[in-house]
């Protein structure tokens, strides 16, 4: 070998050593198994929790809600006029859409209009709104025609459907049509090329995002992103998810099946805990339009017969992760109340005796109760069986109709007689963020309207109270009204509150600073390189 | 031969048309609403109605069918109602993992089961034969998800030889591909190994009793030549049939394996589509699967002539 050749070899070796000595900039990628596959993208159109979580990755809101349930400035600061009728929102500096263009007040006006057209609470608010206008590139003004006490709360709400801001060209998509171009101004950018509906969604850190300076608190405060990439994986099999977590293939599972928790408890490399302090409420809904539940005494008898403890045991199993909460709004929220709880509390035997007595005097003629049972949804598949047994013991004739969740969903919207495809009772569950006040709680709608959520109870008293709630801006007053609504709703047998359950997340050791929140939040969290 | 091929392909057209019609009608008769799947559980009937309207689901059934078939004949399979993505793009994303899984499973099936079947036939009634037959009973009896979990427990969780889940395409390199596809391929092949080894054994036993095999042995040919050149070739037709239809069945029935090993394939896509009542996607997948059966059956028929020159096509 010549001297030149040796020199070249030496330089190459040095270069190789240098390359090894200087570590490459590693990309931190957080791999997460989400609680459901992401099949649709438009967070204005869907009430599904997974779409809402996706919404908070890509989009931002004018206001955020903190852990004290207080609306806080997020994209915009706000001022309210003395008469409470004019709300002025001023966008903060440096807000950009993911395509690089500036966020303008006009974009936000169009977004608010689209949101309100799709969200039931937003639609109610618009009945009180005189105008929403952009007065400059950075300022929008919402003017009420009459008092409405919940403007800030609704603009900050993390419950379905949050008022996400999007560019005007997307916000002007016709009603009912999905937006699939994911251009927001949120802390993450959606990677369209790596999206496989129902299987994988990928987000990268939005380097242009300027977090607020306040500390993170739920969907408010500074959304500081500490990972470069977040990959959502859908795994239909929970055992596969747990195997993947234990082997390090994934970093986090959003919701672990409680009965498989012991597998993780044996593993020192895995941690778990409750990240969403609010949890879910399991509910048994009566169809008020058809016999036998068109009779209030029959509904009351059914409520006495059903047993929270038994149903929670069936659904969740471990008492550490459920509460026999009697509040219609959830137990950890400002409006929590035990009004009208006598239908839910007391010993199971005592209540069964009351159920039998009440049913005997109700005029119930043995009309069968058709209870829908979804067989493909673990958390709800066994409860109808247990509930049916309790109702039979009380004297009801009950038929359990098994079907898949999609069939149940579509059948619940029909109000034809049972023989023609109708139904009498179903179980479902609600995230507490979706029921935490009378404005958003669909099961407390007493209008009996065809456009209300399935069940269609009629109660003029509740409707009057709900109207009173809408204009009230005082928390103590709101608590009183909410409590009265709950008391009447239980007495009228609007639905059976089967209790509250927690969802448990699990993650590998080293993942830190996971943020508690009403949904899974991906800002704040860190992963070691 | 060319005439035969054209005739077979032409015969497939009415079959496919009938399948398209049946699938379309059956899906519309099934309860469930894609608009509800988009809107979610908490949506009101008003919101759902707006989505139904935008998706064109309120149009008369006949008009929906005519539009769909017309577009399909032009190669346009439409858009997913749920994700609003082109159906062909979604299938394209998922068909690779399923084809790879089925191919690996079929290679494992052929490599393992045919020698096992031949050995069992050769040692008919002996210990080895009984062992192979017992193995095949296990392969038939134990569900794939159990075999999958056992394989994961032993080779992925305990020995850490393989990853527990996921898929890497061949484009990422041969080793990453094989590393992730081997366990699911083995799990999927278990039932087909049982089936093909039994079939091979039975076919070989029948052929080994034939006069020409006795003649070959009398001529002093080696046992290897007798087995592979004379016996196996004549026993190949039922084996080819099982292997070919097995491959088609693998493509259309991999959902359990894909679920257990988290492979993002066609099986999981179709289950998702059915649960969400995503009509255009379900229709396209079923039509493509039916088309696969037609093509594979044709290939099987062609392979008959290649293995047995006595077979001629009319």
Automatic annotation (TrEMBL), chain A:
Residues 70-433 form the Solute-binding protein family domain. InterPro entries: Peptide/Ni-bd (IPR030678), SBP_5 (IPR039424), SBP_5_CS (IPR023765), SBP_5_dom (IPR000914). It comes from the Bacteria. The keyword Membrane does not apply. Keywords: Signal. Residues 1-26 form the signal peptide. Its main location: periplasm. The keyword Signal applies. It holds the Pfam family SBP_bac_5. Gene3D superfamilies: Dipeptide-binding Protein, Domain 3, Periplasmic binding protein-like II. It is found in: Periplasm. PANTHER family: D,D-DIPEPTIDE-BINDING PERIPLASMIC PROTEIN DDPA-RELATED, PERIPLASMIC BINDING COMPONENT OF ABC TRANSPORTER. Belongs to the bacterial solute-binding protein 5 family. This is ABC transporter substrate-binding protein.
Automatic annotation (TrEMBL), chain B:
The keyword Transmembrane applies. It is a multi-pass membrane protein. It is found in: Cell membrane. Keywords: Cell membrane, Membrane, Transmembrane, Transmembrane helix, Transport. The chain crosses the membrane at residues 9-27, 99-119, 131-157, 177-195, 237-261, 281-300. Residues 95-300 form the ABC transmembrane type-1 domain. The keyword Cytoplasm does not apply. InterPro entries: BPD_transp_1_N (IPR045621), MetI-like (IPR000515), MetI-like_sf (IPR035906). GO terms for biological process: transmembrane transport. GO terms for cellular component: plasma membrane. PROSITE patterns: ABC_TM1. Belongs to the binding-protein-dependent transport system permease family. This is Peptide/nickel transport system permease protein. The lineage of its organism: Bacteria, Pseudomonadati, Pseudomonadota, Alphaproteobacteria, Rhodobacterales.
